[in-house]
Amino acid sequence: xxxxxxxxxxxxxxxxxxxxxxxxxxxxxxxxxxxxxxxxxxxxxxxxxxxxxxxxxxxxxxxxxxxxxxxxxxxxxxxxxxxxxxxxxxxxxxxxxxxxxxxxxxxxxxxxxxxxxxxxxxxxxxxxxxxxxxxxxxxxxxxxxxxxxxxxxxxxxxxxxxxxxxxxxxxxxxxxxxxxxxxxxxxxxxxxxxxxxxxxxxxxxxxxxxxxxxxxxxxxxxxxxxxxxxxxxxxxxxxxxxxxxxxxxxxxxxxxxxxxxxxxxxxxxxxxxxxxxxxxxxxxxxxxxxxxxxxxxxxxxxxxxxxxxxxxxxxxxxxxxxxxxxxxxxxxxxxxxxxxxxxxxxxxxxxxxxxxxxxxxxxxxxxxxxxxxxxxxxxxxxxxxxxxxx
Length: 390
Ligand SMILES: Cc1ncc(COP(=O)(O)O)c(C=O)c1O
Hints:
This protein is an alpha/beta fold. It folds into two domains: 24-54 and 293-389, Aspartate Aminotransferase, domain 1, CATH 3.90.1150; 60-291, Aspartate Aminotransferase, domain 2 (3-Layer(aba) Sandwich). 43% of the residues lie in helices and 16% in strands. The strands form three sheets. Strands 4-10-9-8-7-5-6 form a seven-stranded mixed beta sheet, sandwiched between helices. It has a four-stranded mixed beta sheet with strand order 1-2-3-12. Helix 8 (223-226) links the parallel strand 8 (204-208) and strand 9 (235-240). Helix 2 runs antiparallel to helix 11 (277-291), helix 3 packs parallel to helix 11 (277-291) and helix 4 packs parallel to helix 5 (138-147). The mean pLDDT is 96. The site of pyridoxal-5'-phosphate (PLP) has 14 residues, from helix 4.
């Protein structure tokens, strides 16, 4: 054990020197809703880091729904979904999600990470071929590895590179894995081209809509609605309840056969405790609000344009989503920028490798409909002066 502790202490020291060390910080929410938090030193910070895109996580309707369900069902589900953990509120949520997306069925999972693992593991065979965007979320990368299928990572957002690889062919079925909105860059996947390629090569596209549902398209229906695609063809979608929904948990949506297979085969579904019923109730309340939140979505996208226009010279990555990344490259520079923003009252942590590729450290700014225009203007000013000195 001593040699193990020694090895890891040395590693940790190395990470610190390289600006790669991560620390866990408790932020106390101010007033129970909104985006203001207090750090350990008592400093109040406006967060530009959460994925609470519609500011629903503290919404009174969600609280009311959760509290009512708590009174009825208690706190934990107490068991796996197939062993008595399923409550009527889970079924009601799954049904409402499927209706919202115009899909036949939905299966709930404990988290997006689990949903991606289960979906890919259940469907993709060892002899199949997986083609994954290079910047997919870690859960899709891990899911691909777990499946045991051959894995090729195509150039980010590049259908031509994907087509070149698909043309080479191989055994088994081809699967394409992509985020709908990329979590650390904020750009939107070229969905029409990916679906064309899936059709052409008899492949299936698995799309992770974690950052797209609630944010993009009419009714917040995500990337398909954003591109106004009505007949997508070979597409299976996954979404999370922990981002625009403001809750926790996730789901896979698609044809009935898919949900039937996942229920039998997806290990991360079969062997996990069902979502706490109160969270399912809060998610149901969130869905009602989210579907009708067109004004909030318009505000959110106006904030995005406003931020970019206020800082046109910033090293922005291309993005049409509320995820706005300033590419600083150097870990130390990203950390220094984040510290300066904190001094100005903003919480905006530096994102560094391995979350992003080497030499691409950045500030990942996430906007929310809960932000006001004056707050975004103030952030832009703070960014401007921090960029000037770091
Ligand atoms: C694109 C993407 N997929 C999946 C996940 C995992 O979702 P969850 O946090 O519900 O596990 C996340 C974020 O956490 C994500 O950004």
